[in-house]
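Field log, afternoon session.

UNIT: design team B
ACTIVITY: writing a sequence onto a fixed backbone
BACKBONE:
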């Protein structure tokens, strides 16, 4: 368990905002939790306070009230891993849509015959 000032300090280290004891009181009011300056915050209460913050901080109530701070890197939530396919991937012939074949001579974009200079 930690006190309100320590909760505010730890919360400030994981978020973009700086939190004060007054901010913690506001979070407690929003979470319908009674809190005072000398009141200790346990993991369950910390989680209720964290749930009032948007965007959600990258720690849990148990992590923020743990005796070890900051939490070990392995216990911090990380972004889920995402796999990207190779940008140069080529579908196999079986994956490609079939195109109708044309019979007859191949078409060319070039005009046949001599070019006329300047029009």
């Amino acid at each position: 368990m930690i006190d309100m000032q320590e909760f505010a300090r730890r919360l400030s280290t994981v978020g973009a905002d700086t939190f004060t004891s007054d901010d913690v009181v506001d979070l407690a009011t929003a979470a319908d939790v009674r809190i005072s300056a000398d009141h200790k915050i346990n993991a369950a209460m910390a989680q209720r306070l964290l749930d009032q913050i948007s965007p959600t901080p990258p720690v849990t109530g148990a992590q923020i009230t743990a005796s070890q701070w900051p939490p070990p890197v392995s216990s911090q939530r990380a972004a889920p891993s995402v796999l990207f396919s190779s940008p140069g991937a080529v579908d196999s012939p079986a994956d490609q849509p079939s195109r109708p074949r044309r019979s007859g001579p191949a078409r060319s974009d070039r005009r046949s015959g001599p070019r006329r200079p300047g029009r």
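LOG NOTE: Residues 27 and 53 are 8 Å apart (CA to CA).
NEXT ACTIVITY: expression trials, pending approval
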